[in-house]
Amino acid sequence: MTRALEAVRTSAPGTNRPDLAIASRGLTKRFGGKAAVDAVDLVVPRGSVYGFLGPNGSGKTTTIRMLLGLVRPSAGTSSLLGERIPQGGQHVLPLVGSLVEGPAFHPYLSGRANLQRLDAADLTADPRTARQRIDTALDRVGLLAAAGKRYRAYSLGMRQRLAIAAALLRPRELLVLDEPTNGLDPQGTREVRHLVASLASDGTTVFVSSHLLSEVEQMCTHLGVMRDGRLVAQGSVSEVRGGAAPTARVLTEQPTVAAQILSQLGLSGVETVPGGVRGAPDGIAPERIVAALVEGGVGVKEFTVTSPSLEDLFLSLTGEGFDVSD
């Protein structure tokens, strides 16, 4: 895991690389004497769907606010689409859509009317194309048919999709979504996941903060994991998952003897478990392990080698379970 993170760090000498949608070096935010975000080096390739994971209080939302220029960092630098923030914000932020800490709309207005108000408040938007752009955004998130419906009658999934539509009122190269599936039922979660996949297929880079590991695993190409304000893992999904050791498990009625054989063979972390024994193979071939057990007189009922799930990985990196949010 550490190898994957260090490889990314050494390949990112600065924050102005044109191949990166988001980059940061030493990004830090202190509140008093406490570092809420501590020297974070983000590397988000253009065209990726980057899952930003971390338990409550790990610094995800504070990091996002610094990236968008909403909070000034105590130290470090960051860039969006190759432009330094906040210096280049005026040029690049119109190309960035964001949803931070949930949508806020007028409940008595329709979905379309809410978007009209938001668009009118954008001094850089062309009012002559407002209706076309609003309808295009509503259509993109599957809400065109419900555009005249009042916001208070929208389901949670529809409300989240309307918030994403607000971020799409202009063409965007980058979307930053903070917990877009938070509080949604399974249907609403699927709707948002499919929308993210659709946006990514068109070349939009999506940076999504989430604690729903199963959803992140299905829709993300890259991951970053935060713990106590620090980035503890980063890279493609395969790189991050590849940093964790697989586990060999033997089902047998002779766990004590099996454990001795596995330890002598060189497996690490060998321990007895209900029904058998387990340990990390550390590169030892499965057939060699089984042969040693059989030669030692151990009756092997079942032998499996499994890689840890993303949930296991998250737990090992952060020390917390997956049902948490920032």
Task: Report the portion of residues in β strands.
Answer: 25-35%
List unreliable stretches of 5+ residues.
1-13, 322-326
| Biggest sheet overview | 6 strands, mixed
Helix content: 25-40%
The coarse overall form would be elongated
Q: What is the β-strand count?
A: 15
Cross-sheet strand order for the largest sheet:
7-8-9-4-10-11
Order of helices and strands: HEEEEHEEHEHHHEHEHEEHEHEEHEH
Q: What is the CA-atom radius of gyration, in angstroms? A: 24 Å
Structural category: alpha/beta
- Overall mean pLDDT stands at 86
Distance between the termini: 23 Å
What is the number of helical segments per DSSP (H or I, 4+ residues)?
Answer: 12
How would you characterize the overall build of this protein?
The protein has helices spanning 2-10, 60-67, 89-92, 111-121, 130-140, 156-167, 186-201, 213-219, 237-242, 255-265, 286-295, 310-318; strands spanning 20-31, 34-40, 43-45, 49-53, 75-80, 83-85, 96-99, 174-178, 205-210, 222-227, 230-236, 247-251, 268-273, 276-280, 302-306. With 326 residues, the protein is of the alpha/beta class. The strands form 3 sheets. The protein has a 6-stranded mixed sheet with strand order 7-8-9-4-10-11, sandwiched between helices. β8 (174-178), α7 (186-201) and β9 (205-210) form a beta-alpha-beta unit. α4 packs across α5. The longest helix has 16 residues, at 186-201. The radius of gyration is 24 Å and the shape is elongated.
